[in-house]
Amino acid sequence: MSKISRILSSTLLASVIAAPALQASAAEVNIYSYRQQFLIQPLLEAFTEETGIKANIVFSKKGLLERLKVEGKNSPADVLLTADIGPLHDAVEKGLLQTLNSDLVNQNVPAKFRDPQDHWAGLTTRSRIIYASKDRVKPGEITTYEDLADPKWKGRICNRSGKHTYNLSLIGAMLEEHGEAETKTWLEGFKNNLARKPQGNDRTQVKAVKEGVCDIALGNSYYFGKMITNDKKPEQKAWAQSVNLIFPNQDDRGAHMNISGAGITKYAPHRSEAQQLIEFLTTEKAQRIYAEANSEFPVKEGTPWSPVLKKYMNEFKQDSVNLQRIAAQRANAAKLVDQVGYDN
Amino acid sequence: MKALSLQMPWLPQRSRQQTGLKRWYFSTWLVAALVALPVLSVFYLALFPAENIWQHLASTVLPHYVSTTLLLLVGTGLLSALLGISSAALVSLCNFPGRRYFEWALLLPFAVPAYLIAYIYTDLLEFSGPVQGMLRELFGWQTLRDYWFPDIRTLGGAILMLSLVLYPYIYLLARASFLEQSNSLRDASRMLGCSAWQSFFRVSLPIARPAIAVGLSLVCMETLNDFGTVDFFAVKSLSAGIYDTWLNMNNLGGAAQIASMMMVFVVMLITLERIGRSRQKQFHGSDRFQALDTLELTGWQRWAAFATCAIPVTLGFVLPVAILAGYALDNLDQLWEQNFLSHALHSFTLSVTAAVATIVIALLLAYSKRLHKQRSLQNAVNLSSLGYAMPGAVLAIGVMIPLAAFDNGLDAWMSSTFGISTGLLLSGSTFAIVFAYSVRFLAVSTGAVDSSLSKITPSMDMASRSLGYTPLQTLFKVHLPLIRGGILTAALVVFVDCMKELPATLILRPFNYDTLATFVYQYASDEMLEECSLAALLIILVGIVPVIFLSRTITATRGQRKATH
User: Fold this and answer.
1) At B363, which CATH number?
2) Min Cα separation B244/chain A (Å)
3) Which of B128, B507, B527 is the closest to A63 by Cβ?
4) Which of A131, A218, B323, B515 is the most exposed place for a label (fewest CB within 10 A)?
5) What is the pLDDT of residues B367-384, one digit of tens each?
6) Cβ atoms of A34 and A81 closer than 8 Å
7) pTM for the structure as a whole
């Protein structure tokens, strides 16, 4: 066989074998998302418009990590997108993520909202704050998370399930600050102050304050933005108007922070597109869309806050502890919740 | 092996026939094992957890989960039985205004998913809802401190919600049983001096007992694996505990342990059902096509009967659907902007495929059991039914494990042998969803097919076989035509169940793939029901079609009725 025909035939063979692979990697990125599709759709559209990369998505609030794990090296997923630090931390523990290696991400995202080992990065931040009734709670009457266990609030506090991922992170932060014994006592006191069995989401708690079920509620900060701007359901504006926002622990460590974030899967078939997506999400353009759509705080410093955030939430002191350390306490936090029977 | 041929000594023993029967036997076990794989995977996870937290669970939350679950089961079981039996008896055995409409209307709540009705009633009955709002306006109350109103988000609320949509299982089976009963038995009891009332409790009800037991066990299984309602109402049942342990404690092994423990409840239920059905062998009586005698109600009884039937229909269907329709009318633009039709098409194709698949499997299992009256085959059938009581999301994990193992194994083999990567063939495809549906709902179709088959007298088989048909020919020429109605019923029930299925679909679906249920969930879980009201309404409306078929099939089992006084 002549040299030329050998080269020709091997090229042909190679292209036949490689064709499906090439086709599969043609400008696509596959996302497993714990965030609802309608929340991130505008961002993905902006991403596709800018880069020409098509973004495919599977949304579920559970089971995606397990799916990623059993699919192993054949998994089609490139990016894991979450609404909380929890799943990101679990994914790292299960060895499902690879390092990001992005200078742009490092530059845009402050270190406390990134994994020290570079497996994930925060994309937006939120604080877990206290919503206090304007009528029944005087300004300055409650200023810290520790105050939630003060017996004077007996039967006056509403909260969602203690095992909800937002509360687990908060309890994790308390564990990080105070250690196990003290945190357990605090959680017992907090439980004794509850006005009713934990139920519903954060919005439900603020509503309960408006309705007089309780005087104080715990909730993520963006819920306020979602309620105060809700033209479709104007009654929610009234719920938001009935409360004062209290960013706790301003005189010591600062308010507890959490993130929505992303990481690249270990066997991502579209590694470069995945990185482009995460980098895009940390740019100012994407950060503004994010913050305005969902009233979250931009993670990139210097990004202007949305008008709603500017109007109702001044700059506040944030807890500076690295989120990775809080995430590592979550399993212990869950056990504490069971031990004190917080949800029963 | 004690095959059918051995019970018919007059038949010539032919080795070909023996091999044929063996083939049935082995394929039955093979299919049962395949269907059981996901459940077995969950058991495996339970036995070998990454970190064992059983001790922690048992000493803290587990007793609470168990007692809550028992209360939920007993409450839902009793209320569903009350609603189902009373209405079935009234429309089958009595005559009163509206009876002909109630015959089918009582089935309608079956089309409403439990999680939807829970969302709707919360909207209606909570503090800011219209009911309490009106009361406050009327009496000048301000906040909740001024008055008391029952809280819907409680154990009692969950029992009410679940009963309102699950009682049709009992109604359906009890009514079919009442319609099959012979006039002569009741006539005899009346002649022996029983009042109509006594005759019902001493004759009709005991005869219907096996059917009611089947319905009750279906209700209990649905209750056991309900997650949407208990989660929304913060009722800590075992099913809620499974999710909690898995997602919030990040311990899948512990969750699998609770799921396995739940199987104990299931075995208890199956045993109960068996006891309920024991020593009851009924074949169609000779007067099946003679009209059933009905009792003409008079005076206040007519209106009491009317109310008894109207209440479950109104609360379980009319009211929630009216509310949803109101939302939908305000949001008609959804129809065009949200790929609505493609979601509907996905739901429809998945559900039809799964319904056909479960019927084929159920026929194989039930008929094979009939061919070989063997204990081990009963075990195979029981094994294949376990998926019904496993919470959907846990089952989804169980489905993933064997499918991904198969895909990755095949890929590794193809790569090393032929240098071709096959990637993930089955997992992450619609096949995985259909497989999950089949595993989950096989118990429904097996139960229905089995009970239809059991009503065909064995002499039919004997006649067909002695005339030279093989078992397969007998199935197609004799049994299938006779149980057509039962099969249609089973297929429709599975179809509706699949349309409503949520957690397994969410976890297993391919990229950019939505069904009506997943679409609804996206919004409803964030308490934004209005945004998806049209899709929610469509799930219910599609569910009504089979309900109407069901009702016709059952009514057709009996000739024209005549009234007696």
Assistant:
1) 1.10.3720.10
2) 7
3) B507
4) B323
5) 888 887 777 788 888 888
6) yes
7) 0.80
